[in-house]
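User: Hi! I have a protein structure encoded as tokens and I'd like to know what sequence might fold into it. I'm fairly new to this, so please keep things simple.
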């Protein structure tokens, strides 16, 4: 089965990205069921939460119905096969990855993605799919004291969101790492569909 992955910084915003996203779906957009995972937000200590509401609106703007979206915190057992899409919100990368490992959600997540459930990552939700999350040390606090920075390796490379704010940082990391670096600007994204990768 082919993987259907969308990596973003702030959600699916630009029209080209939307077009490619719709091609991943096997159903009408207003019928798909979405598991909306907000775990990474809990690792943030920022009192400004307006970005969360703004990004949730981008999900609705795709044509997804609010009643078809279930919020999830990895705090109970869940059958991922009941959903057509997983939306992994941003927040603290290290908190998110630790929670995924502690709950063994990585096993379920990999199985779901390998079974063609559409995965949309935003910021931290995109970073974790790459080979390493180490680059996030520069801008996320590692208050959970994570020492193993290996990502889920569902994308062969390193994902750096908000790239438009980190040009010098990315240039420096390209020198250091042999992996391909996917530098994603706030309004853009990467689509991985059937082993074909498009940067939009």
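Assistant: Happy to help. Inverse folding works backwards from shape to sequence: for each of the 200 positions I chose a residue that suits the local structure. Here it is:
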């Amino acid at each position: 089965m082919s993987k259907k992955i969308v990596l973003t910084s702030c959600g699916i915003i630009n029209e080209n990205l939307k077009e490619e996203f719709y091609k991943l779906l096997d159903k009408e957009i207003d019928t798909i069921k979405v598991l909306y995972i907000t775990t990474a937000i809990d690792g943030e200590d920022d009192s400004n939460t307006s970005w969360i509401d703004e990004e949730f609106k981008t999900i609705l703007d795709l044509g997804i119905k609010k009643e078809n979206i279930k919020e999830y915190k990895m705090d109970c057992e869940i059958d991922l096969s009941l959903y057509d899409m997983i939306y992994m919100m941003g927040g603290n990368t290290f908190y998110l990855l630790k929670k995924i490992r502690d709950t063994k959600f990585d096993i379920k997540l990999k199985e779901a993605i390998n079974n063609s459930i559409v995965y949309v990552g935003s910021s931290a939700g995109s970073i974790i799919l790459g080979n390493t999350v180490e680059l996030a040390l520069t801008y996320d606090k590692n208050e959970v004291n994570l020492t193993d920075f290996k990502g889920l390796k569902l994308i062969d490379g390193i994902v750096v969101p908000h790239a438009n704010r980190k040009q010098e940082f990315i240039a420096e990391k390209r020198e250091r790492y042999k992996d391909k670096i996917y530098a994603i600007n706030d309004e853009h994204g990467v689509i991985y569909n059937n082993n074909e990768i498009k940067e939009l």
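A useful reference point when you look it over: Helices lie at 15-23, 50-61, 93-102, 105-114, 124-127, 167-176. Feel free to ask if any position seems puzzling.
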